[in-house]
Amino acid sequence: MDTNSTDPLDQLDDAVAAAAFRRLVRHLRHRHDAQNIELMGLAGFCRNCLADWIREAGYEGDKPAARELIHGMPMDEWKATRQSPASEEQIAAMEASLAKNQPDLR
Question: Does 84 fall in a domain?
């Protein structure tokens, strides 16, 4: 908890925030029909972003370990069993969505 911040989100108890984060990750693990490319196109982030963010927050594992933690399986297995090829429209939507992100969220 950051007691110096004026953002109410930073006043949220770390245990509550951690529980919500775990619920989000478990939800995304269950909803593998929500493709990463679609999440990127709509919200500007995906499961891989979450893996990057936990590393930036201090997770000591490497990139493959972080992705496995978020995906619930090794990345190669995820790609083979869950990921569909991206269409040109999905890629364009992702690029437009990423352009809306704040620089510190990229």
Answer: yes
Residue 34 sits in a domain of what CATH number? 1.10.3340.10
Per residue in 34-63, is it b (16+ CB within 10 Å) or e — as a string? ebbbbbbbeebbbbbbbbbebbeeeeeeee
Q: Which domain holds residue 35?
A: 12-105
pTM value is 0.87
Residue 55 in domain: yes
In order, the DSSP letters of 61-98 are: S-HHHHHHHHHSS-HHHHHHHTPPPPPHHHHHHHHHHH
Per-residue pLDDT of 37-94, as tens digits, reads 999 999 999 999 999 999 999 999 999 999 999 999 999 999 999 999 999 999 999 9
Domain count, the chain: 1
Do the beta carbons of residue 89 and residue 95 sit within 8 Å?
no
Residue 12: φ, ψ to 5°: -65, 130
